Amino acid sequence: MIDVAFCQTMARYNRWQNKGLIGEADKLDEAGRDLDRGAFFGSIRGTLNHVLWGDTIWMARFAGWRKPRGGIADSPRFTASWPAYKAARGDADTRIVAWADKMTAGELDGELAWYSGALETNIQKPKWLLIQHFFNHQTHHRGQVHAMLTAAGAKPGDTDLFVMPEVI
After folding, report:
1. Angstrom distance (rounded) from CA 30 to CA 26
2. Could you read off the pLDDT of 115-157 as tens digits, one per residue?
3. What is the three-class DSSP state of 115?
4. If exposure means fewest CB atoms within 10 Å of the residue's CB, which of 17, 75, 93, 153 is most exposed?
5. Cβ atoms within 10 A of the Cβ of 143, count?
6. Domains of the chain by range and CATH?
7. Would you tell me how many other CB atoms lie within 10 Å of the CB of residue 155?
8. Phi and psi dihedrals of 126, rounded to 5?
9. What is the value of pTM for the model shown?
10. What is the pLDDT of residues 79-114, one digit of tens each?
11. How far apart are the two ends of the chain, measured CA to CA in Å?
């Protein structure tokens, strides 16, 4: 089982990694960010949008954020432009860190129930497991973006958790 310190560390890791990937993606032109590179969500921007959409739907469940529009199939187009994505991502990362910083051990207890549109069924799982999934989902798809950026000639930074700067 995870603890509050894990959540706080992963929230900061999420923000650190997003800043690095956005910095490298900024070096590409719009066509380079939107080029279908064969990933599940197509492009660099499509995959980053999917992660932001996923973060938003999970935070709607965990912390009462407004539920995102559309479903998974719509997630690669979650934001209308690259500047809109960067603004929304920065805001979400700040809010995720704030959520983790205020978290108590009791918030990891119990279960969360919701209707999954993706699976078309009701789901009920332990909160700690779902929060761990939330952070794992981010890491998984950022790895895809890291690979796409590398293939595009960018030089994304280190992803090792143990080298994360102390202040993020």
Report:
1. 9
2. 998 899 999 999 999 999 999 999 999 999 999 999 999 999 9
3. strand
4. 153
5. 13
6. 4-158 (1.20.120.450)
7. 8
8. -60, 140
9. 0.96
10. 999 999 999 999 999 999 999 999 999 999 999 999
11. 25
In Å, how far are 2, 81, 145, 150 from 121, measured between CA atoms? 26, 33, 30, 38
Nearest to 3 by CA among 132, 96, 99, 112: 132
Structure tokens at 139: 């890491």
User: With 0-12 CB in 10 A as exposed, 13-18 as middle and 19+ as buried, what is 40?
Assistant: exposed
Token readout for 109 is: 């207890």
**Token pair for 119:** 């699976």
The number of beta carbons lying within 10 Å of the beta carbon of residue 56 is 19
Task: Describe the crossing of helices 44-63 and 127-151 by its angle, rounded to 10 degrees.
Answer: 170
Nearest to 63 by CA among 55, 71, 72: 55
DSSP state of 65: P
Distance CA 75, CA 168 (A): 27
How far is 56 from 37, CA to CA, in rounded Å?
A: 24
Alpha-carbon distance 50 to 54, whole Å? 6
